[in-house]
Amino acid sequence: MDIANSVLELIGRTPMVRLVRVTEGIACPVIAKVETTNPGGSVKDRPALAMIEAAERDGHLKAGSTIIEPTSGNTGVGLAIVAAQRGYDCIFVMTDKVSPEKVDLLRAYGAEVIVCPVDVDPEDPRSYYSTAERLSQETPDSFRPNQYANPANPLSHYLTTGPEIWEQTGGKVTHFVAGAGTGGTLCGIGKYLKEMNPGIQIIAADPEGSVYSGGDGRPYLVEGVGEDFWPDTYDPSLIDRVISVTDAKSFHRAREVSQKEGLLIGGSCGTAVDAAITVASELTGDEMVVVLLPDSGRGYLSKIFNDQWMTNYGFISREAPTLREVLDSKTSGIPPIVHLQLEDTVERAIATMREFSISQVLIAQGPLPLSAAEVKGVISEMQIQGLTSDDNAYQKKCSQVMKPPLQFVGVGESITTVKQTLKEGKKLLVLEDGRPIGIVSYADVIAYLDQEGGN
Question: Which CATH superfamily is domain 315-452 in?
């Protein structure tokens, strides 16, 4: 009988399938390694099992121990599955960028989940890295796998995923593409494949803004891939090329693969597939690109597969006229985005509003172009008038007095949808591909409609 004794025996030996419809016109075959068939639905089941087994061998885990780990979701699920089989408790720390489905999924396995802000430095005590480290110090008999530095992470792929790819392709693979998160998947597989054939090219698919492709780690929306620091598990000597992929390309590619190939994949899969198609379009039919699909799209149904979410962040458009036409019609000469930093003073906010003849200024963290997560609040003339009783008010930091950020809306949203909200006196921050590009008011809409002869 072919019956597993444990769900853990089902990890690995995942299938491969050629992507046909999304690669039409490309001679080079693009073969997907479908890691969604692992019990936890992602590639992270492999290192989760390896890291726990290594900890058991080394005496770091024993009956009653608690596993604590920062995760974007998939590693947490893998660890939770193994922990359920071995009788360990779990505490997972996540950023507020992850989809609610992922938080609920971890809790379904009985884990405790703590959510932290995404837009802080790794060293900030509020970051999910720092929070996990603090919890591991405070919790008796705890163990932190630390997938970012644990050698069992890349080793699991060197011993399993790499050999599977080599065997399944009959050694014909010439290029391997995967997202770079911890680097464990990419480097473990890359090391094995290069040992089998030094000529194989290893390509990292990276979100725009991540450090691997030259960014500074500023927030981006795609989950579970890219980093804002350099993990020990990432070996740059194994990487032949890094391809930066925008959030927009990642999300649209994930939707395309799901709808054309019948493979429901996540946003980081979209990142990898987009990079793989870029590589394959440069090659011939004598070569073969293998791309690793790390997880399913089931964890992103409320985000990239939700048209309203995609519209809100400016990735897709409604029927015209939309807010894009309104912004394009503005002729005031004022920069589309005027913002100050958290540490700037109220006095500077007043001077800025006078300089540009505006009634409010955005407070954000970082230079232009901003991401939606970097917009922290807003300061208005009316608000400042209420501070006059405080003698030190003008020297206070903007972060001390700002109000919550403006409600945001996608540039492709229809005017009809937001007209009533604007009529109530609210202003909206307009996003395109997840980044603020302007502010729209009811007066702006009326001016546009007057120009077009509408109402």
Answer: CBS-domain (3.10.580.10)
